[in-house]
Amino acid sequence: MNIVIIGCSAAGLSCLDTLCKISPQAHVTVISAERYSPYSRCLLTYYLGNMMTEQELTISTPSSYPASVRFILGQKAEKVDTRGKSVRLSNGMECEYDKLLIAVGADAVKPKYCDEEKRTFTLRYMDDAKKIAAKLKGKAVVSGGGFVGIKTAYGLLERKIKTEMVITSSYPLSMVLDESSASYIEKDLAQMGIGIITNDDIAEINLHQNDLKVCLSSGRVLESDFVVAGKGVKPQVDLARAAGIKVNEGISVDEYMETSVPDIFAAGDCCETVDLARNKVSLIGLWPVAVEQGYFAALNMSGNRSRYPGSIGMNSLKTKAFHLISAGILKGEPGLKVYEKQMFATKQFRRIAFRDDVPVGMAFYNCPEEAGLFVNLIKKAQPLLVRPQKVVNGDVSISDILKPL
Amino acid sequence: MKTVIVKPERCVGCHQCSFECAVTHSSSKTRMGAISEAILSKPRIRVYLSSGKENFPNKCRHCEPAPCEMACITKAIYRDAKSGIVLINRDRCINCGMCAMACPFAVVRYYPYVRNRESAHKCDQCIDRQAEGKIPACVAACKVGALLFDEVNKIMDKDTEKLASLIYMGIRERVPEPGNFASLVAYKQKLNEIRRRQS
Ligand SMILES: Cc1cc2nc3c(=O)[nH]c(=O)nc-3n(C[C@H](O)[C@H](O)[C@H](O)COP(=O)(O)OP(=O)(O)OC[C@H]3O[C@@H](n4cnc5c(N)ncnc54)[C@H](O)[C@@H]3O)c2cc1C
After folding, report:
1. Whether A248 contacts chain B with CB within 8 A
2. For ligand 1, what atom is nearest to the CA of residue A108?
């Protein structure tokens, strides 16, 4: 069987590794537009912050695979011919497939002020990180207060760059956190020396004789040496759409990770799947989720039909000053009941949101140990049989939750 | 392939498994040495006490597929191809917390292991001891048969998998059958019952 995988990051690589284990007789061709050996995208901010080298980002070496696996790096898949079952690459090469996985991921949203001439970048690929690293000096502005924005600012801080974050909403991580959880993060960021400007956005960037002037909507003007925009991602759907595959926000897939065209599967940031906390199909856009989806795609492509159960939004953000693990939904839904326990002395809090007696969201600040237990309860929509307040207080042991009385 | 099998209903909560686990993973590997090391070795197995006063030894299940391995953004977590044990490469670990976020059994902890370097810690099924032909330290320490080391296929499909999936789904396990240390276990259970009635 000929399998072609387009994209070799979290989802593509996980699919490949699973196929090598469960279906070693398959011939697999992996196509990646990037010329690098597979690397971990999540670590780009660590690379930027000189906390890791380019080599340390590498998570797999093409030469370690058996002869039945072929890597084509640095070539883009330009067209999928669903009738003739082949993929055309940018160098004109045609790759025929029996089963195809589209794992082309997402790209950073580029706000209209983005312009490399004006030293304004987005951070998604290794090449982006290298471009930014080449311009690194003095002062920076990071726009966007999401996970990528904060991780970028933290990376720059490690390089002793004076960084100012410009956030459209009134507090950081507003997409996932409620205001009071976020206030801790905001304080920590400020204490580390990252400037935070809320309720504002970049309107325009001007370059005057090598000096950058970042003009904000409020009229404020910031001096900066370069700008990084972290304003979210958009799934790469053009290839699939042109091939006649059903696309909504992302590529539409069924429970078996198969698209509307038989024998074509999709996984990772490019596709939309069920968010179990929200009970609806959404873009999730996370490394662990992409890996899971790649795994399920591999099972189904090799004939082991297995249902992908869906996932939830979750993340772990660790800096020198704090460690935050958040998952599911914490706000924005009527009837959501939030329980919390703050431990001021140890600078910790645990917050869990419930819909009736089912946990649907959580934020754990500086206490990562039991986070996975709750992430899993949220995923399973499993009612908690012990009193929620006791759980957040830490008055019940995990055996009470694993094995309800 | 042999693996550690946990029988919570037999546990009497003596915590010797935790102690021996920490000793085995210390640099000196001796009891006296372990307690005087600059960076104290930490146990990878913990015994919890439920509100019904039942003991619950908890350690890494080496799940297949392993959520922690899938969540690891540096690929520091990997499965040893030969033994199937899920291991952590400390030098690649950056303590990002993704594995703790992913682990449904809450067994991952972050500790320093040399000066100025932290890493995720969890059970490695005593892979080094096994290479020397010994059984895992926690199993060697357990006096009541709550921790067993046996063939996966022999016991796994019979007993533990059922139990693990029941626990996983939040269903209480069935009435335990008498085992090797039936009287001690029975004594312990009676004690629990008395305590439960009193409270
Ligand atoms: C700076 C940063 C930090 C992050 N931090 C975290 C984090 O802490 N936790 C977390 O869970 N997630 C994090 N993420 C998100 C995570 O990296 C993504 O969810 C994950 O990489 C998705 O993997 P993927 O395989 O779906 O796609 P991608 O990683 O986007 O990879 C897609 C690949 O396909 C290639 N490709 C695209 N089109 C084509 C084509 N036509 N032909 C050939 N190849 C093509 C691309 O070049 C790319 O290599 C972070 C992302 C960034 C940018």
Report:
1. no
2. 53
Q: Are residues A256 and A281 in the same domain?
A: yes
3-state SS class at A354 = strand
What are the backbone angles phi and psi of residue A157, rounded to the nearest 5°?
-60, -40
Domain match, B186 and B130 both: no
- pLDDT tens, residue by residue, A125-176: 999 999 999 999 999 999 999 999 999 999 999 999 999 999 999 999 999 9
Higher pLDDT: B1 or A185? It is A185
A373–B105 CB contact, under 8 Å: yes
Asked which of A241-250, A298-307, B156-165 is least confident by mean pLDDT, the reply is B156-165
Residue B92 in contact with partner chain A when CB distance is under 8 A: yes
Looking at the fold, whether B163 and B124 belong to one and the same domain comes out as no
Q: Is A361 among the domain residues?
A: yes
Residues B10 and B29 reside in one and the same domain: yes
Q: What's the domain count of chain A?
A: 3
Counting the structural domains of chain B, the total is 2
| In the predicted structure, residue A43 carries a pLDDT above the cut 60 | yes
Q: Quick check: A161 and A136 in contact, CB under 8 A?
A: yes
- Residues of A (4-23) whose Cβ lies below 8 Å from B: 14
Are B90 and B40 contained in the same domain? yes
**Which is nearest to A202 in space by CA: A112, A129, A122?**
A112
Asked whether the beta carbons of A334 and A356 are under 8 A apart, the reply is no
Give the Cα separation of B90 and B42 in Å (integer): 15
Which residues line the pocket of ligand 1, CB cutoff 6 A?
Answer: A 6-7, 9-12, 31-34, 41-42, 44-45, 76-77, 103-106, 123-124, 148, 151, 236, 239, 268-269, 285-288, 290, 315
Q: Quick one: average pLDDT of A313-317?
A: 96
Q: What integer pLDDT is reported at residue A405 of this predicted model?
A: 32
DSSP-derived secondary structure letter, A46: H
Rounded to the nearest angstrom, the minimum Cα separation between A40 and chain B is 6
Same domain? For A222 and A240 the reply is: no
Dihedral (C-alpha) A23, A25, A26, A32: value to the nearest 10 degrees?
90
Ligand 1 pocket mutation pick from A5, A94, A104 by most atoms within 8 angstroms of CB? A104
Say if residue A34 is in the same domain as residue A122.
no
The boundaries of the domain holding residue B157 are 153-198
Domain assignment of residue B21, yes or no: yes
Cα Rg of chain A (Å, integer)? 22
Q: Which residue has the tokens 């059903």?
A: A246
Minimal-distance CA residue to ligand 1 atom 29: A9
